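Table S2 (continued). Query chain:
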Amino acid sequence: MFDTGNTGFMLVATSLVMLMTPGLAFFYGGLVGRKNVLSIMIQSFVSMGITTVLWFAVGYSLCFSGDIGGIIGNLDHAFLAGVSINDVFGSGQNNIPLLVFVAYQMMFAIITPALITGAFTNRVTFKAYLIFLIVWLLFVYFPFVHMVWGGGLLAQWGVLDFAGGIVVHAIAGMAALASVFFVGKRKVAESGPHSIPLVALGTGLLWFGWYGFNAGSELQVDNITALAFLNTDVAASFAGVTWLILAWTIEKKPKFVGLLTGAVAGLATITPAAGFVSTSSAVIIGIAAGFICYFAVAMKNRLQWDDALDVWGVHGVGGILGTIALGLFGSTAVNAAGADGLMFGGGDFFMKETVAVLGASAYAFGFTFVALKVINFITPVRTSDAEEASLDESLHGEQAYIEEV
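Corresponding output:
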């Protein structure tokens, strides 16, 4: 009844995407100061719990059941009602259990809001973050999953997003920027990453998990799966090297954190296009990601936006760039299920991708800013100056590192 090879592969891919959230926690944890490590890491780990509960209750149904105005699904499958262990996902001989698809998509839902947390590190109370996590999933993430991957408005219009350029990175990155503008700058300055080895560990876990993120989005094992896998590594590598060279040239040092950040920028940028473009196009996309994301971060620094861990410059700009790049380099000669981009005569497709990602980004920015304002009436969003000095102790009563007296 089920294709065991595809089912096994998708279970592995699901596990890889799950691993990305702890990887993100390590990546962000290493970038902050010693006294705020746990506060940023718990924001990733708690999403694994809260988002799973919400996904089981209403998330899966709102994303993939029915259709209301092309914007959102219905509640027919709330609490997974009507979802049987015998239900299949797929067609022909490529069937996998529907439950595997439910779990795979849940892992995407878990990591997406966690990406935002790197922007407002050290400044947001845990209670406000939990409210924000739920509200943002309900009113931003779930609608865009439905519109792009659930047969909604954007899918009907012809918009493509292989693994989450719009659905994950663009909307999370723009939400991050909105949160930076709302909460303002940090009052307590940090001297920089407290543990670059932790950043490297997190990057390794993210890069490893991204193979499940991108290649797994084919939802079966075929030639496109292999293409997405290779394109993921190629884009990350070219972006990381590009960033390293830029840092070496401009900052006069080959920065390890720059290499790691560049690789993540390449991973984010190739995500929407991974299974729709050739590997030579992935090279171009990776190099473009290294250049454009590097200078986006530099611009952010000049403008003194306190996006602490460069979520906007890496994920927001990367997601937008990758989606537009898909509109440029997409090719039906590579993937018949895709579309021809501007370079292959597909001007209309290029326009759709550009309008869709810019519209989604604007909505995510606007909703996030308003949502934080409303949450602030319920409970303070910003931490006090005293709390900011050591969120681990003031908010959680714990320490990452016990200092010997």
